[in-house]
Amino acid sequence: MSSPLTTSRPSDLYTRMSPGEIAKAIPQGCDWGGKRNSQGNVKWWRGFKIHIHSAEGEIPLAVLVTSASVHDSQPVPYLVKRTKERCPNVLYTLTDAAYDAQSITRLIEGYGGVHVTDSNPRGGEEILLDPAKKERYKKRSGAERVFSRLKEDFGVTFLRVRVPRKVTAHMMFSVLALTADQLLRLVV
């Protein structure tokens, strides 16, 4: 039996935990991670990942820094719960195919949200979005712009530290700068 920390999908344990407990339970040390790109090649790196739940306007609402080996879906309970604490009126959560799991959809709907996700065709079965969700899903590119701006404009690509608390501090200062910049763009 695998531990909840090594499963590739969020476990029931994470959904029952508080955000603080989840943040402590998810690995946050420097290690190896890999991701398959659009050409099917795996890119490997040593370090950390930053997970962000952002609003329209590319404003981060909840952020968690984890080990590079943590699957993207594991921090979802933390991000959803933190977002609902801070912004209870958030309705839509737009995600890519890595988050196409019933447990994630149940969690988001349990907090009164709507989960709009790209289908992950397991066993050849692909589920198409209804027209309203398909139109809403087009706004997901804003989340990708958040990561792009953090990497290109705010220095999270090349960290000079490896201690988890220093990495987290560096990334959070970058997120704070991005948030301030985005808020100024909305005002001006």
Automatic annotation (TrEMBL):
Query: Which superkingdom?
Result: Bacteria
Question: GO molecular function terms here?
Answer: DNA binding; transposase activity
**Which Gene Ontology BP terms does the record give?**
DNA transposition
Pfam families under this entry?
A: DDE_Tnp_1 (PF01609)
In terms of InterPro entries, this protein maps to:
Transposase_11
- Stretches assigned to the Transposase IS4-like domain: 35-178
This protein is called: Transposase, IS4 family protein
What organism is listed for this UniProt entry?
Leptospirillum ferrodiazotrophum
